[in-house]
Every structure is written in structure tokens, then in C-alpha cells.
Amino acid sequence: MMIDPGKPEPGQGESDAAAGDGRPRSIVKIQLDEKSFLRRRPEVEHEREVALFDLLEENVFELKGESGGQKGPFHLSLSLVEDRLIFDVCDTRDAPCAQIVLTVRPFRMIIKDYFLVCESYFDAIKSSSPSQIEAIDMGRRGLHNEGALMLKERLAERVQLDQNTSRRLFTLLCILHMRG
User: Fold this and answer.
1) In the prediction, which pLDDT does 61 show?
2) Which DSSP category does 141 fall into?
3) Where are the domains of the chain?
4) What stretch of H or E contains 87?
5) Integer Cα distance of 53 and 59 in angstroms
6) Which of 53, 166, 59, 151 lies closest to 110, judged by CA?
7) What's the rounded Cα separation, in Å, for the pair 103 and 88?
8) SS3 of 27, please?
9) What pLDDT is recorded for position 9?
10) Measured CA distances, 24 to 19, 77, 120, 121, 144 (Å)
11) In what order do the strands lie in the sheet with 96-103?
12) What pTM was estimated for this model as a whole?
């Protein structure tokens, strides 16, 4: 299953490395709760690593509102507990800055549809024409963008994100959602 269709910007690297610790308005370290997800197919693991690294390479993430408008840089831990996506945001010394909790329920249909389209995409690669593959890929990207926009809107009161950061975080939400 492909999770992050069409990376908007290239990048390679490690998921929990601190990239540019001096960058304000950004996540410089990210960790996924290992208990929240299962290791899946190599394609999914690859997309997870790409999303994590690309997120660290370039992102806009700034706390606002009751968190005092902290500009970072930040360490971020993502986990899925029961039906909630939890963002634990810390400063670079791992002192807590904010905990943001979102219900996953509104994302379920998009994630389900997205997974179905991804499966169709991988099946199509094996036997379909380039135009059929492209059509499925466009649908896949559309669903991914829809999920990223929903995530950005749901975080808007607490966090300022750019579109690419939101896309990558939606990729990670999908991967966390794949737990057993």
C-alpha cells in the first residue's frame, strides 16, 4: 500500500534524527509510538521513512493559541491511543510544550477510501495501461490532499502548518491507523 503519493519535495534520511536543530517554526525530531503501529509491507515502511525524513527536512510547525505562540524548534511524538491521535510537542530539551489530541473518527472514511485506492493502484501497476494507472494515481492524490486539508483544519486553532507538513503528517496518521 502506498501512503504518500507523489512526494512534493525530495529528501532522504533517518526518521528520528534531529535535522537543523536551530530552525524555528519547525519539527526537528519526530517519533512514532512503536506500540501504535505494526510493521507492514515494504512499500508502507518505505513511505513511512520517506514521510518522516521529508518532514524533518522541511516543515512549518508553530504552536499558537493557549500554547503561547511558541515557535520552536520542536520535538514531536505521535501516537494513536484508542480513537485519538496524540501530538506530544516538546522543546529541544524535551520539556513539554503542548499535547494536542484529535479524534480519528472524522478521518476514518478518507483513510478507508485511501487504502482501497492504494490497493487498486498497486494492482493496476501490475497489469493496467499507463492511462489507467495515472487515473487511479490522481484519485489517490486527491484523497491524500483531502485528508491533509482536514488535518490542517482540525489543527488550525493550535498549530500553524504548511500544506507539505500537513500532507506528511496525514501520511503518518494513515500509518498509525494501520495498527492491528
Assistant:
1) 94
2) H
3) 27-177
4) strand 84-90
5) 10
6) 151
7) 15
8) strand
9) 36
10) 12, 18, 40, 38, 27
11) 27-32, 74-81, 84-90, 96-103
12) 0.82
Contact of 61 with 27, CB cutoff 8 Å: yes
pLDDT score of 84: 94
Amino acid at 139: G
**pLDDT value at residue 119:** 86
What pLDDT score was predicted for residue 68? 60
Strand partners of residue 81: 84
The residue among 102, 98, 93, 119 whose CA lies nearest residue 176 is 102
In single-letter form, the type of residue at position 172 comes to L
Within 10 Å of residue 27's Cβ, how many Cβ atoms?
Answer: 23
Q: Among all chains, which residue has been given the C-alpha cell 501504535?
A: 36
pLDDT-flagged residues of the chain (< 50): 1-21, 180
Q: Strand 74-81 to strand 27-32: parallel, antiparallel, or no bridges (unpaired)?
A: parallel
Residue 42: how many CA atoms within 13 Å on its side-chain side?
0
d(CA 53, CA 171): 12
- Please enumerate in sequence order all residues whose Cβ is within 8 A of that of 43, keeping only pairs 6 or more positions apart, or say none: 1, 2, 122
Q: DSSP letters along 151-174, please?
A: HHHHHTTTEEE-HHHHHHHHHHHH
The answer for residues whose C-beta is within 8 angstroms of residue 37's C-beta and 6 or more apart is 80, 175, 176, 178, 179
Pairing of strands 96-103, 159-161: unpaired
Q: What is the pLDDT of residue 179?
A: 58
